[in-house]
Amino acid sequence: MKKDLTKSIKKAAGSSTLKKILTAGAVIAAAAAAAAAVTAVKKRRALLEGKPQKNLSRAKNVYISGTSLASFAAAAYLIKDGGYPGKAIHIYGTPSSANTEEYGSIGICTRALLRDIEARTDDDFSIDTMFDNISYAAAPEVKVIDADSDVRPLTLKPSKSVLKALSKALKKLSSSSARELNELSVAECFGETSGFADCDLFAFIEMTFGIRSEHKVSEFLARVEQLLTYAPKAGLFDTLYYDFSILSVIENYLEENGADIHPAAEITDVGIADNRVNAIHLVEDGTRMTIYLNREDFVILDTGNLLDGTTEGSFNSAAPKPETAPQSMDLWKSAAEKDDSFGLPEMLLDDTPESVEFSIVDDNGYLLRKICNKLNEEPDNGISVLFEASNWRMKLTSEPYSFIPAAPQDESAIDFTVDEALNTTSDADEADITPEDIEAASILNAEPEPQPVICVKGVYAGSEGNFINKTMRECTGVELLYELCCHLGMLSDWEEAIDRIKVVMISCSPYKASPLRKAPAYAVPEIRPCDNCMLTGGFILTDAPAGTIEQQIQCAKKAAYTILGKKEKRVRPKLVDVRRL
User: Which of 34, 405, 422, 493 shows the greatest Cβ crowding within 10 Å of its Cβ?
Assistant: First the structure.
């Protein structure tokens, strides 16, 4: 019986009818697969173009608190890499106008984003021009002034023992053990390395970026990598200004793709239950409203801006202490009170070392000339000076500046203005007004040229000065100027300096170093604290140095990719050769 059954099965399997059926089935299956692929391509193309689609369930809405560069960048990634229709992305609030900490820190992610969104070139902005601008136009030789006001050139190349320790740490930074370096402080990593604390390399990074021995060693090593990358032109690294055109380019891209932007609105609070954000509360044009989220919706919240809470002082007044924590952190703090997974913002603000900077508006280059003569430098190349013995660990910089020749002093030779000269009609008895006369009158009556600005920053703002018995943050502008003149060996010129210089502007940023301090891991929030909420902003840890443009873009990309379920390709940093120093 079994043999007969086996023969009949074999006979049926070999029949032409069954073969035709199987062949037809394979063709139908292949056609169905091809149709599904075509449909998927059309669907993605429609998403990329923001077109409404048939038989498409309601798009997942993403609600974003748009108070930072990271918020706008996250929206751009959702459109660019996820095909999100712009109408499903809702941004409440305009980007913060506060600068990031290091204005020139534009890295791989920032460059790639700006190129991928095909930023338009117009009269105000072009990518190529921006990248040219951040390649540092000046390369001053950094000088060091010691306790006796003597000058020597900066020597970045450390001793062999320091080089060996740096090489070992940099290799760890580019490996899977990078997280370990985010838990160690600079002192714990290099404390036993002979000569490290006294080497110029550490002094330069300490005074330029505000990195202190108790801060995370990963931040220090990231700055070393930057310094190696830009070593020939590192002297003015921290004097570049934030390019707001980056914001405008991303905003243009979002508007062109139909993003729903509400510049007059602000998300004030969120509702959280069952590990989800279920509602957002906002105010728009004075009207309070609540949006209840569906199961498929997402929220991106900004953790705050590092320079929020900055106060200002003047020639005769010190910068006051801020009365409250950064307002840009309020939303994050409110969420953290409802759910511990959002971290502990208060721990990042406790005992945070303040950062104080002051700018001197020089009178016709009086002080700049004095400093350049002492350094044997020309002002048109920029200057960069470290004060080795300063209790505040001060660094002074000035952008390239060319002195303008003085106007003619003999005013009796020119007793008319340009307008008078142009409106005069000559009589037979009068001499004609020559072009030379008009040029001379233009020089005499020209508007004053911009004054050079000298910038000074201090790392240890809570310490008393060497010559002023006050902490840096307690000093008025005139007291800061006095401390500087003493370090420059200009005490004999003090009376003239105080007579010539009338403007000193002070800026105190109490939270600028918050992510740099050695906070426990549980105080710093994760990118995804709950199922449908992502965090961005200045207090999110990334591979980039905290508070930089690159850090903002990196955390934006992480937030967007988490929503999209995409894995971000980790770019292994190329090992730098510390011998280049």
Answer: 493
pLDDT in tens, 394-438: 999 888 787 765 554 444 443 444 344 344 444 444 455 555 555
pLDDT of residue 163 exceeding 80, the answer is yes
Cβ distance 63 to 293 under 8 Å? Answer: yes
Sequence-separated (6 or more) residues with CB below 8 Å from residue 260: 86, 87, 88, 89, 90, 91
Residues in the chain: 581
Q: How many CB atoms lie within 10 A of CB 428?
A: 4
pLDDT score for 35? 55
- In percent, how much of the chain has pLDDT > 70? 67
**Does the global pTM surpass 0.85?**
no
> Cα separation of 476 and 98, whole Å?
23
In the 8-state DSSP scheme, what is residue 314?
B
Contact criterion met (CB below 8 Å) for 144 and 200: yes
E-state strands within 333-466: 355-361, 383-387, 394-398, 453-458
Range name among 190-204, 504-518, 525-539, 560-574 with the lowest pLDDT average: 560-574
- DSSP 3-state assignment of 184? coil
CB–CB of 313/324 below 8 Å? no
Residue 93 has pLDDT above 60, yes or no: yes
Write down the residue that tokens 């003149």 correspond to. 485
Q: Residue 72 in 3-state DSSP?
A: helix
In sequence order, the 6+-apart residues with CB closer than 8 A to the CB of 307 are 98, 99, 100, 101, 509, 511, 512, 547
CA distances from 327 to 87, 166, 289 (A): 29, 39, 20
| Phi/psi of residue 123, nearest 5 degrees | -65, -25
Beta-sheet strands, E only, within 80-160: 89-92, 143-145, 151-153
Separation CA 505–CA 518 (nearest Å): 31
Please, is 294 exposed, middle or buried when counting C-beta atoms within 10 Å of its C-beta (0-12, 13-18, 19+)? exposed
Q: How crowded is the C-beta side of 292, counted as CA atoms within 13 Å?
A: 1
Please choose, from the candidates 305, 266, 246, the residue with its C-alpha nearest in 3D space to the C-alpha of residue 540: 305
Residue 260: predicted pLDDT? 93
Q: Give the model confidence (pLDDT) of 100-149 as tens digits.
A: 555 445 677 887 888 888 654 444 444 444 444 443 334 568 899 998 99
Confidence at residue 226, expressed as pLDDT on a 0 to 100 scale = 67
